[in-house]
Amino acid sequence: MSNPVMANIRQRSGKCRAETITMAHGSGGKAMRDLIDDVFVSAFDNEELNKLEDQARFDLSTLTAQGDRLALTTDSYVVDPLFFPGGDIGKLAVTGTVNDLAVGGAIPLYLTCGMIIEEGMQVKDLRRIAQSMRDTADQAGVKIVTGDTKVVPRGAADKLFINTAGVGVIPAGINISSKRAQPGDVVLINGYVGDHGAAIVDARGEMALQNTIETDCQPLNSIISAMLEACPDIHCMRDATRGGIATVLNEFAQGSNTCIRLNEKSIPLREEVRGMCEILGLDPLYLANEGKVVAIVAADAAEEVLAVMRSHPAGKNSAIIAEVFAAPKSTVILSTLFGGERIVDMLFGEQLPRIC
């Protein structure tokens, strides 16, 4: 039996024949409708989006069947360049929002998408980014259900900015918080740190470096679901994006008024990233990641959770990297490769601008 909604979409679906974005594509008229139909509706294609209402609508009973709390997050993406080794701004936008939901214990379900497009952007690049968003959403098991498109004059933006918001459901019994770290807990991470920051440096081509590092950009909801199945009482969890693992650990230490002692020998780090950091004077602890989850669990659950992480494709290089102590409070301390110790503060300023 045919779907009348889909039949309507097919009848009125337009075709964007322009090679570059013009101000007419943001005017609200036919050019804009053709762009939306051709680039976004065709790429994101799902039952809720195809209704083309001003909002997506959901049955509350469907949501409450999966949990007892809603989770809502939003983020904006301004990465430069738009395309980089292993990813692009579209993949980044979906991944970042899915991961922000997942690290709170939520099951990510629905995303919104707001596009701020600069006049003159290549339509073929916009198509490529929209398809990347669809592919990443499919990988994460979420749907992009509503959105908005705006066009600004040349020079008012840098090709494309994306805002995404996400809705998820938190199952009963999950209580993850930056305030729950306790002395005796251990800290785990699901693999190499700093890959995303290194990939962006390489993509910008400003440093004349030659490396083959790809971004670690990936949805984390699948591995986090496996971790929670093994240990529903994970105390703290964050994805280490801007500011790197140093910032996340400081948030945990300050939020729970504890000391986190980080072991440099245990931190998974590619030699290529280490070498790049030495050349450029960067600290890998502060480099951005887009596919790394940092979790704190009770010591007696650590090995089981670690085994689950290592058995997952997103966690083959998982490791225990730190322990939680009572004092000195609200402090992160690094035990260095040379046998010394130093305090690891929050990032001051920004190592690499427009990293995500």
Characterise the protein shown here.
- This protein is α+β, with helices and mostly antiparallel strands and about 350 residues long.
- It folds into 2 domains: about 5-170, 2-Layer Sandwich (60s Ribosomal Protein L30, Chain: A); about 185-345, PurM-like C-terminal domain (Phosphoribosyl-aminoimidazole Synthetase, Chain A, domain 2, Alpha-Beta Complex), CATH 3.90.650.
- Helices cover about 35% and strands about 20% of the residues.
- It is built from 10 helices and 13 strands.
- It has helices at about 5-10, 30-45, 60-65, 90-100, 125-140, 195-205, 220-230, 245-255, 270-280, 300-310; strands at about 70-75, 85, 85-90, 105-120, 145-150, 160-170, 185-190, 235-240, 260-265, 295, 320-325, 330-335, 340-345.
- Helix 2 (about 30-45) runs parallel beside helix 5, helix 4 runs parallel beside helix 5 (about 125-140) and helix 7 packs across helix 10 (about 300-310).
- The longest helix is centred in the middle third of the chain and has 18 residues, at about 125-140.
- The chain is globular, with a radius of gyration of 22 Å.
- It starts with a helix and ends in a 13-residue tail after the last strand.
- About 45% of the residues are buried.
